Description:
- α4 packs across α6.
- The protein has helices spanning 16-30, 43-56, 74-80, 91-99, 116-121, 125-134, 150-159, 172-175, 189-197, 212-224, 238-249, 260-263, 283-290; strands spanning 6-10, 36-39, 64-67, 86-89, 110-113, 140-145, 164-168, 177-183, 205-208, 229-232, 255-258, 273-276, 300-306.
- The strands form two sheets. The chain has a seven-stranded parallel sheet with strand order 3-4-2-5-6-1-7, with helices on both faces.
- The protein has 13 helices and 13 strands.
- The protein is of the alpha/beta class and 307 residues long.
Amino acid sequence: MTGKDVVGLANTGTGKTASFLLPLIQKVSQDRSQKVLIMAPTRELATQIEEELRLFSREMRIYSALCIGGVGINGQIHRLRFNPNFVIGTPGRLKDLQQQGKISFTEFNNVVLDEVDRMLDMGFIHDMTQILSALPVRRQSAFFSATASPEVLRIMNRFLTQPTTISIKTNTVLTNITQEVVKTNGQDKVNVLHDLLVQQGFDKVLVFGRTKWGLEKLANDLSRRGFAVASIHGNKSQGQRKRSLEEFKSNRVKVLLATDVASRGLDIDNITHVINFDLPESYDDYIHRIGRTGRANKKGKAVTLIP
């Protein structure tokens, strides 16, 4: 992740859980000293977030503790002793654990607050602010809320530093997009991508990669395997980019490879699939990438490859 604070104005059901978990999983997998605290207003939402985390990070040796009320605290204390990279919980139980000396918030250099407006409505303001005040000054924070009420804005202004704001205010943005995660399980990622591209329905596919060099290598690999492919990235001239886009738009090539920067502002009809060959760096990049499909009331699919 880029390290910037994020405000996400997003309704429930807009795919935001995957979009903050995937970059954080990537961050932790690259630096095991990273610790992530995720706060949610209800036990149900916290449980759902932990279930998605387990699904996305299976076999990556990334561990979590779920800290919620309504169930015994001893099992949670036991999990915390293993120093998990992710702690997911409700403010009340997290505060209880801190008061018992079982968790220290000074250790967390990443924090996510999901459904901030709902937490305020449920009376968690004091627990939230006490927990946030105990976190290190140097941290990355992401706050998500369906509304931007004065109370929500006050919390954000107090605890965020020059945040990037992303607004996904209607469910229509992502309801037409099915989001999937494909684990490579040690296989060559190009082979996994190949197996996806030959499936029925992968008719017009936009593939995102992180580096210009990596994308060019991938383009050569796919071409050798017989795929009609084009690419756009920073090492291409404007003329080359334009030609690649025209080939993709007119269906002369089935697969377009792109970096995040080169793809800004792209408007291409009828993209059936977006594939995250490399994980996005941020929530903003993830939403921007997958929003290339599922447009104009058509259905689309977003597939993210993870180790």
